[in-house]
Design goal:
The structure is a homotetramer of 290-residue chains. Chain A starts with 8 loop residues before the first strand and ends with a helix. The first copy, chain A, has eight helices and 15 strands. The first copy, chain A, is 30% helix and 31% strand. In chain A, the strands form three sheets. The first copy, chain A, has an eight-stranded mixed β-sheet with strand order 9-8-7-10-11-15-12-13, with helices on both faces. Chain A has a four-stranded antiparallel β-sheet with strand order 2-1-6-5, covered by helices on one side. Chain A has 290 residues and is an alpha/beta fold. Chains in contact: A-B, A-C, A-D, B-C, B-D, C-D. The interface between A and B is large, with 104 and 104 residues.
């Protein structure tokens, strides 16, 4: 049973739109629409306990999860939403021990989520060029205690000749023009390694998909993910009137080798195969263009 | 660079509806609509390479991910789909090192997915009563190499008085009548620990939500998740004509303590608080009933 | 070519959230965030022309459609949305010449929409008990010039013994407890006539469906309708970030006669048939209860 | 009370996937998976009655609606679905008495639906170039008894210089490249008349939207419409597992006159206005291109 003490992280939870994520510091207290909350009142409580504000409102003392850190990041900067984060992890099969490449650190929400899964034996190598964002991301990643599992690089992979990392299990791309880095990403991925790109527009999906075919990726899949809240109440259950129209589309693919096709199962075929392969490959490409 | 050898797991991938997950065994070969595939042809290749069948079709040799194992499980038994699995992980903040309780092992797809995230330091304790399913689950879990991180119990938590595990970080419930086990699950969860229940019907959401309020849970949220495939092709990008209507709804909540409310921020109030608390709690409950 | 003159109805359109529906009256002018608009400036213009406000904003002079009248009604009162209205008309096959029964006039948006379709030879008989709403509806219906095709009744069909109309082609129900009026509605509908009920909650769908089976309706169908806006812009096409979570579910059915089953196609069977029918009917009912 | 007689149209309804639309002809009978059905058994029955097949299955005798005719058309040819038809009618405010232009008759499902609403005083002028389809459409339109309200033209509006009709209230476009006919459609529409285009791909929405701006249309709106079936059963209510991924997107707009801008509300401004207008117009156009 974990008790809250000085410096413990706490999500002061009133409801999903009114919640505050902080580390306990004895002397602090904060003023909200629902009343004043004194940190010291939380000390010694078990996570899950609640306080009553001086306005008689209950505030729950929750142990912050990755979700809470990500939703906290949300304030101010653009993030990848849990509905999308979750599918990325499930579709790419992200798991403990993997090496992840991220291009476009942004505010570090995707970085943190992925790091929390691949730790302790895995690592996230994330690249960005915006100093300001890199500082924000650094703060967000360390707040969720994951700095040890993330390396931030200030390097423009669109232009640089460097191949700073290789044999990555998964590459995550959050750029306006993801297709530009595909040939480079290919070099950094292991065989049959996965790519996931955050594509807010249909045009990005279209351009990226063509680049993925050109660069010998397979199992290419574009999806969108809609979350609908349901208000479950006795005799009155229905979907929420509020809803989100769109966050982003996602594009997934796996690295293949079109060239390295082996013999057919009959020895005869062997000689003819290679030629066949290349022509085949070409036509496939052409097909995807029309 | 990992080369495929005897016993290596391989996803023979033609497309998303034609794929075969197997461990390589030299002498084997299998017959499909797209031709004959000889395991031996895969040996020595790098993951991501492709073979050509005797019908001139390409088959990619992919390194199986958790996703591939789960979709493989799908054949025959009912599973929790990646779109839902992903949200469960993201919303509950499942991560390396956690202890997970699962009630209703089913075919072991949720079990395997969660185990792949909490390993190596975490563990999944899963309970079921159906011998047949437990065998299927055992096979599926070991196929994905996760047996070490999962303990299967043949115990009916609906009836048994036992509390076999405690201080769980997250509880996953896949039962027709999840509300029955809530008081018991509460005892097994740590403070502010999370619950996720798989609820295919609206009626389940409704009954479960009432049980969660009665049993002092907070941050209660019901959602559904819709995945839509997009066919991104030059000049012809649109959603896929095929779609899935429904898989399941999900219900999330976190364990709280309604009783343990502390003093208001003013000393005066102290004496009156407790009384207030209990009445408050009651009314909250009543409210949720109308 | 229709020119705008004194008393012409005009939708002053700036964008979908800033638009004003009025009848032109020479001396009037109105002040908005986008500037001052003088009615007199519209006189003599063709519908579709635009004015410039004193703040250099363009305002289009559009000829109001049924849609515009319905969205105007929206302000203040709850309405049935075009996405739902449209499906009601399409699924029930509402068309010129039909007689429509409406229970729950509300603000008259559904009333007006349906009247605009069945006119000039059809008619809408609408029932409500709330004097205040009936006045609002009357105003809305006459504003869209449809009073001639609508008869408003102040009568509670839940309690009254009267059968004020019969042989209706379609019955539209917008009540909190639609199942109560089903036996009565049945008496007012023609054979195989259609019912449509506005059901904001899943519980209503459930209770109503059972009542429809009990009361010998067939082709029972519950649906929900999601509209998603798309922002089509060169190179940046995507769904809108804003969205609507939920408006209402819809329940459709057609009046049948379970009793009036005729002989099988073999003379022999004749005698046994009737018995068979009734038992069958019973079992069907029972089935739907479990 | 309408009794079924020789030549009456009847929808023999078993369930939504097993139904047959026919005109009664005494001597006919048809064989189905659910048994033999003799037309003669229907004669003299009231619509809504049911027959029992020689396999003890009930078949309901329903009076066909526009919906039934459209779903019948579906077999074999591509149609516009009721969910989309309905929104077209509701958003464009289609009603009795209107003149409708349709480019791309296809199988005549949209044609028939719209004709059933604008009759008896309105009319549909529909254009196509495919002789084969025109014959199919003619058959479908006459089957639903609407020939009187529809004129079919074999004319290619993409190339022809003719302006065969003018002052249309609404224009419906179902072409692969709708943008090509926009300047022409503009000439056929009345001021502030509405356009609706059936656009299965996002690329069509994008190109069409640009053409609409270039051609002085306003209130431009792109939408998609998702219908979800709900299985409402006591204690087991949920969405259907089956679903439709995509049918088409829709693009709506209204004809405006960018040129005909009048003076500002202050006399002073008058002189400067026109200039301002044109530049404005230009910039608007430019904006939509980036």
């Amino acid at each position: 049973m974990t008790k809250i003490k000085q410096n413990s992280p706490v999500l002061f939870f009133y409801n999903n739109s009114k919640k505050w994520l902080m580390n306990i510091s004895k002397k602090e207290s904060f003023h909200t629409h629902i009343g004043v909350i004194k940190h010291s009142d939380a000390i010694g409580k078990e996570y899950g306990s609640r306080l009553m504000t001086n306005k008689d409102k209950y505030v729950y003392l929750l142990e912050p999860t990755m979700y809470d850190y990500i939703m906290k990041i949300q304030h101010g900067t653009q993030i990848v939403y849990p509905k999308d984060l979750g599918y990325i992890a499930a579709r790419a099969g992200i798991k403990d021990g993997q090496k992840i490449l991220e291009i476009g650190t942004g505010s570090g929400s995707l970085t943190s989520f992925v790091a929390s899964i691949v730790k302790p034996r895995g690592h996230v190598y994330t690249f960005d060029v915006d100093e300001k964002f890199m500082k924000i991301a650094e703060k967000n990643i360390s707040r969720s205690g994951l700095s040890k599992y993330v390396t931030q690089h200030n390097l423009d992979l669109k232009t640089s000749k460097e191949i700073p990392v290789t044999e990555m299990d998964v590459a995550l791309i959050d750029l306006g023009d993801p297709w530009i880095v595909i040939p480079k990403v290919r070099k950094m991925l292991k065989g049959s390694g996965a790519i996931f790109a955050i594509c807010p527009t249909m045009n990005q999906l279209e351009k990226l998909t063509m680049a993925l075919v050109e660069n010998e990726f397979t199992d290419i899949e574009s999806t969108e993910h809609i979350i609908r809240n349901i208000e479950a109440r006795e005799g009155k259950t229905r979907h929420s009137f509020q809803g989100i129209g769109h966050t982003t589309y996602l594009c997934f693919a796996r690295k293949a080798f079109f060239g390295k096709t082996t013999a057919k199962t009959t020895t005869k075929a062997k000689t003819t195969t290679k030629a066949k392969t290349t022509t085949k490959a070409k036509t496939t490409r052409k097909k995807t263009k029309t």
